[in-house]
Amino acid sequence: MKTKLIDPTPEAYSYPLLIKNLLLTPLRYYPGQKIIYRDQQEFTYTQFGERVAQLAHALTALGVKAGDTVAVMDWDSHRYLECYFAVPMIGAVLHTVNIRLSSEQLLYTINHAEDDVLLVNTEFLPMLEPIRDKLLTVKKIVVLADAKETYTTSLDLEQEYEAMLERQPRAYDFPDFDENTIATTFYTTGTTGMPKGVFFSHRQLVLHTYGVLAAVCGYDAQSRLTSDDVYMPITPMFHVHAWGMPYLMTVLGAKQIYPGKYDPATLLRFVSEYKVSFSHCVPTILHMLLSHPAAAGYDLTGWKVIIGGSALSKGLCKQALGHGINVFTGYGMSETCPILTLANFKPHMLQWPEEEQIKIRCRTGLPINNVELKLLDPEGREVARDGKSTGEVVVRAPWLTQGYFKDAEKSRELWAGGWLHTGDIGYIDEEGYLQITDRLKDVIKTGGEWISSLELEDIISQHPLVSEVAVIGVRDAKWGERPMALVVPKQGTEKVLTEDDIRAAIQVSIDKGVLPKYAMPETVNLVEQIAKTSVGKMNKKQMREDYGSY
Q: How many angstroms separate the CA atoms of 436 and 192, rounded?
């Protein structure tokens, strides 16, 4: 195919897509808008821009240069937001460290990422002390301390963050460079082997920001966001850029609340006190908030919450709607920056009855702008979009990671055939909505047939006496695998949940033809808690290890 390329004028400016340009508009439109950290500090956007410049000067004074890696270990804070901008804007790489990793994994990720400087919250200094002599590339450690906070450590610290900033100029001439320069890196929280490093360029982060901006601001849907919204993340900022939302809400010039360490009562108070209108979290965090005794004392009406990381069950969706929360699903992965789909209503759905809307809210969603998505069968053929035919979800978008850091073999597997393979199985309905039915590694294979653990979980979750549920496959001599349900009963109810109650609820769906008869779990275990990963997702690998002998 013969194409014609632009012959640029030598004097023309090519305008690379760089993170620094995301700050231009909010500083013009909303210079007086507030960014608040807990009950401790608040800044205007003008002051935020100045602090980003001061941090850039401070890092440069520490010897950080283009291509170096600056790692952050902190709770969700204004400091983290400043690092989201200042570190990549000087051409360095921001490593957002998962502070919930084991000490062995923590050491591995810091060394594998080749971190040069660590910015560390005082609470995490004890995590570094026993591994300090094993850190291969770290040259300097800066401590992040809240006001009037005292601490002691055996580590050789460079200086304290605020003291480091206050001596620096409030303006910085951020350079231009190639938009494909790596801006961020972090490590997946896989349940097998060591975490895998993914990385994203300035171009990818800017395009992801504008893609999500169009998806949540440009359409007549229940999810619409504007600069009038008040934002508070409840997804850790170390995890996939907090789903990219801090970049988006900064572009919008919205008021932002950073809650620090998550505490249910404090989060609920902030939602009420600051009139938070938009957040995002995994289902277990929403469940934790709604189950907390303080939830009954706050008006949560109108709070928009995107649920991702795991499936949003109809039971949890109904519970959230009962509190007036506008809850709906988003979907993506660490490798996809992350957002691929959102469960936006189409205009004709806005007047649907609640029960019909719940089905859409719990769908995995519609692909957002610039996302190509299709389903492949085991032979690599695309399956029909008929609401029944299932296949593996494969995607293309301008913001997907190009591979795993220093792992060419896994990178080729990820991008087999020129499409990024998610490892998720699902179907696409007639309206174009994706529904994930299971992970390839979690689907239950019984007697040659597949059973969706997510579908079983969704049905069980709607029982009024169920608090949480997970379904896994366990070994069976005759059928290969059989489903097992792990159910946490709801506390404080007069009636006691029994295994027969769960079986009866499942039987209703079997009788209706929603589930095949072989989907009835072999075992129903009533448990006190369900294993979770470091970011709050259900840890089914751990569950299979714990219950594999059944």
A: 22
* Residue listed under structure tokens 């049905």: 459
d(C-alpha 543, C-alpha 550), whole Å: 11
- pLDDT over 60 (residue 430): yes
- Return the CATH number of the domain spanning residue range 23-195: 3.40.50.12780
Q: How far apart are CA 98 and CA 75, in angstroms?
A: 10
Rounded to whole angstroms, the Cα distance separating 550 from 542 reads 14
Of 160, 191, 450, 490, the active-site residue reads 450
Q: Is 415 a catalytic residue?
A: no
pLDDT digits (tens, 9 = 90+) for 151-198: 999 999 999 999 999 999 999 999 999 999 999 999 987 555 689 999
Decide: residue 381, CB within 10 A, 0-12 exposed, 13-18 middle, 19+ buried: exposed
Specify whether 82 is catalytic. no
Per-residue pLDDT band for 421 (boundaries 50, 70, 90) equals very high
* Distance from C-alpha of 356 to C-alpha of 351, rounded to nearest angstrom: 10
459-464 mean pLDDT: 94
Q: Check 335, 392, 457, 468 and give the catalytic one.
A: 335
Q: pLDDT by residue (tens digit) across 215-225?
A: 999 999 999 99
Please confirm whether the linkage preceding 338 is cis (ω < 30° from 0). Answer: yes
What does the pLDDT look like over 281-298, one tens digit per residue?
999 899 999 999 999 999
Sequence-ordered strand ranges (E) for 434-535: 434-439, 444-446, 449-451, 466-476, 480-489, 523-526
Q: What's the confidence (pLDDT) of residue 194?
A: 84
Catalytic annotation, pick one of 149, 445, 493, 545: 445
If you average pLDDT over every residue of the chain, what do you get? 94
Q: Where in the chain is the domain with CATH 3.30.300.30?
A: 445-550
Which of the following is catalytic: 109, 185, 188, 364? 188
Other C-beta atoms closer than 10 Å to the C-beta of 209 total 24
Q: Active-site residue 445, yes or no?
A: yes
Closest CA relative to residue 247, chosen from 261, 264, 233, 266: 233
Is 303 one of the catalytic residues?
A: no
pTM: 0.86
Residues 85-110: b if buried by 16+ CB within 10 A, e if exposed: bbbbbbbbbbbbbbbbbeeebbbbbb
Q: With beta carbons less than 8 A apart as the criterion, state whether 33 and 255 touch.
A: yes
Read off the DSSP letter of residue 490: P
Assess whether pLDDT exceeds 90 at residue 534. Answer: no
More confident residue, 386 or 452: 386
Left if phi > 0, otherwise alpha if psi is -120 to 50, otherwise beta: which for 251?
alpha
Measured CA to CA, the distance from residue 147 to residue 6 in angstroms comes to: 54
Contact 375, 396 (CB under 8 A): no
Tell the CATH topology of 445-550. GMP Synthetase; Chain A, domain 3 (3.30.300)
Location of structure tokens 């934790």 = 288
Question: What span, in angstroms and rounded, lies between the C-alpha atoms of 74 and 127?
Answer: 12
